[in-house]
Amino acid sequence: MTIRSGLAALALVAAASAGTIVSAQAQNNTAAGAIIGGTAGALIGGAATGSAGGVAAGAIIGGTTGAFIGSQSDRRAYYYWGNNGRCYLRQSNGAVVRVSRGYCG
Prior knowledge:
The structure is a single chain. By secondary structure, the chain is mainly alpha-helical. The protein contains 4 helices and 3 strands, in the order ααααβββ. A 3-stranded antiparallel sheet has the order 1-2-3, with no helix packed on it. α1 runs antiparallel to α3 (about 30-50), α2 (about 20-25) crosses α3 (about 30-50) and α3 packs antiparallel against α4 (about 50-70).
């Protein structure tokens, strides 16, 4: 399989799964970020290097980055877990206040 046909197949799979990505994003932004980031990274890595190694490296880097960005947006309303394991409330004026852990569920 040539690089171009491999990239075309990957693009076709990405386009076909676009409908499922939207529903997955509503449930878990981490998974959606990993899927979108991995697909984009594989396309860019393959186009930039022209080799299967570039596709694999791009998919790994893009998937990891997408998962990280998606996990940062996994918040319940304005309550969310901080990186230090504490629960925070983002107020409408932009202020962030530490609250009881029960609010983050």
